């Protein structure tokens, strides 16, 4: 192993340690193919040590006063703000997204950290006084133990910050498995979390692939798993984890539709479609990858193409870049193969983004904005999540046809409608069978006061990450019924054997 290339460390029981593994993966800059670091595929013993550290730390952490937990996250959000530029530069180098988008990635996670600092009001139970003669009933929201998180490559800051801050703020301990493709920015955020005061063993990090994922699902001391990633892996994680009695929440693949009515505000809508369809090189589970043009809006196709042509494709750290490279050579090849499939299956290629010339970065994994019209269900570019800057246009005659089209798709992460009609928007929100709806908003990811509520084929598990739902996910409700007798009262002994 070349000594000049840094290695990514594990975090076990408060110590950043070198893995003893013999298996390593390269962390590659997708704009240059430069090897930035090597990440270990941790051993079974290292995973066991991480979980054991979490189990031991839980004994004291669960009893840490809620105010003390909250203050750690107040400090943590301050440290993230102070180091945002540094973390964003790391993120851009290893993941490829533009610097402004990298800062946005961090900021959306920061919002959850800020919400975690409000745990004192989020974790309160309920009480009913005097439900019977002298009897009170109340609930406690208590932590459940060691929890785990498995995160994807496309948001190496935001999604880890969706997971471990809320779990730890609730009094649990945590084992995090970041994406092995871009773990460096995640690890910098972990370093800041330790600096903020998270005690040894409360947060642990292991790196790896299939064996570590399966190990997390199988370990008897892990009580809950949160996952974000592909449908194939998420389905595997959910069934394997729940088979061992764990709680699991799996946010998975998507095919998000944006419906455009003819009365939509054109300039704002065109800008929104370009940003939501091509931003982050299309590598968002909430990307608007299908545009449904209703009625006369079908004439907007050429204007969508013209807007897409204006987007600058370059390395993410270059000022003015709007679309960076996709994560890997394999991802680029898969996207290009789907573009070829779209052509072969009869869709009209309006804008071809294959093989763009990016001066100085000829080895980069670049795909420019690509636009298909005349797309229909059954085509691979419609049925599959492309996860690249490819926008598919479907044309229908009426809003109800658009609603039926969206509802027939198995995925339910997000959808949107662009219109000036309040009546049409309300009809859409009532009839659409998708968990997150935007009205003149192309990417309807809720702020942390609420929860991420993808549905149907895009989600397994009842409770979503962050917000109110995740407090329920990371806690156990204990219901207590109590009765205290007045010692000064005089009463006869009365043995009761009935249920009344």
Automatic annotation (TrEMBL):
<dbReference type="Pfam" id="PF00171">
    <property type="entry name" value="Aldedh"/>
</dbReference>
<dbReference type="GO" id="GO:0016491">
    <property type="term" value="F:oxidoreductase activity"/>
</dbReference>
<dbReference type="InterPro" id="IPR016160">
    <property type="entry name" value="Ald_DH_CS_CYS"/>
</dbReference>
<dbReference type="InterPro" id="IPR016161">
    <property type="entry name" value="Ald_DH/histidinol_DH"/>
</dbReference>
<comment type="similarity">
    <text>Belongs to the aldehyde dehydrogenase family.</text>
</comment>
<dbReference type="InterPro" id="IPR016163">
    <property type="entry name" value="Ald_DH_C"/>
</dbReference>
<dbReference type="InterPro" id="IPR016162">
    <property type="entry name" value="Ald_DH_N"/>
</dbReference>
<keyword id="KW-0560">Oxidoreductase</keyword>
<feature type="domain" description="Aldehyde dehydrogenase">
    <location>
        <begin position="17"/>
        <end position="480"/>
    </location>
</feature>
<keyword id="KW-0520">NAD</keyword>
<protein>
    <recommendedName>
        <fullName>methylmalonate-semialdehyde dehydrogenase (CoA acylating)</fullName>
        <ecNumber>1.2.1.27</ecNumber>
    </recommendedName>
</protein>
<dbReference type="InterPro" id="IPR010061">
    <property type="entry name" value="MeMal-semiAld_DH"/>
</dbReference>
<dbReference type="InterPro" id="IPR015590">
    <property type="entry name" value="Aldehyde_DH_dom"/>
</dbReference>
